[in-house]
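This entry is passed on directly below:
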Amino acid sequence: MGRIQRAMPTAVTLILLVTMGLGSTGCAAGPPASPVKPAYTPGSAGSASAVGYLSHSGLEGGFWAVYDAPLSPSSAVQPRILAVLLSGSVDEPAIAALNGRYIRASGRIAAGASIRMAGPEILVDGIDIATPPGP
């Protein structure tokens, strides 16, 4: 029994180190260095990022989403939602200042089921201004 007790701190330490390493994989390291096309990209270890135009949707009680094109009331074709940013993971006043901007949101893929039928959901770790691709 003494051997198991001595091994426990080592096992716990190993689990913590692996968990911390997986949690940091795929996090944003700042804005993309060059123009990036709008896209949703799932990464390794449950990470994800979405690049596109940030706007607030009034659907289903309202949520922030990343779109493939700017929202325009006069547009015949509405932009497609690339990802939904979970409200508990964003600072509402700060994100409102980015409304309509081209951004990169990075974080983790939300686990579980959603009542929204709008796109994949991201638990946001960070948002950076990005450079839209040229014409």
Notes: DSSP finds two helices and six strands in the chain. Residues 2-129 form a domain with the OB fold (Dihydrolipoamide Acetyltransferase, E2P) fold (CATH 2.40.50).
